[in-house]
Amino acid sequence: MTDCLFCKIVAKEIPAKVVYETERTLAFGDLNPQAPTHVLVIPKGHYQDAAALAAADDGLADEVLKTAHAVAVQEGVADSGYRLVFNTGPQAGQTVFHVHGHVLGGRDLQWPPG
Ligand code: 5GP
Ligand code: ZN
């Protein structure tokens, strides 16, 4: 997609702090971190939200989940605990419409979320 922020990060047209990468996924630091560890995990291909990714039906959603866990291990939050969030749709707070999982950790996280 030409006018998508995260597609531009994949294409390296916009800089990002990449922390982990596989053939089909990319993980990079959130611009406005909400926790000591706050990494976004995306498929390199464009899917607008978790529903579209779930429908991809080619193991890509599985790969995104595995990348998210690998990021948590690499960033040292897997043992203490981390949260994986896919805001899906405007009412749930999605603002960038290229599916992304937030990997949040490094501090106590409250429940329920706001
Ligand atoms: P959403 O609200 O869609 O779940 O999450 C979008 C996230 O993207 C936000 O946490 C926001 O801080 C992050 N973000 C927005 N623009 C950029 C950017 O240009 N670079 C990076 N690394 N993160 C961004
Ligand atoms: Zn995109």
From TrEMBL:
Residues of the HIT domain: 5-114
CDD domains linked: PKCI_related
InterPro entries: Histidine_triad_HIT, HIT-like, HIT-like_sf
Name of a matching Pfam family: HIT
Motif (Histidine triad motif): 98-102
Classification via PROSITE patterns: HIT_2
The protein's name in its UniProt record: Histidine triad nucleotide-binding protein
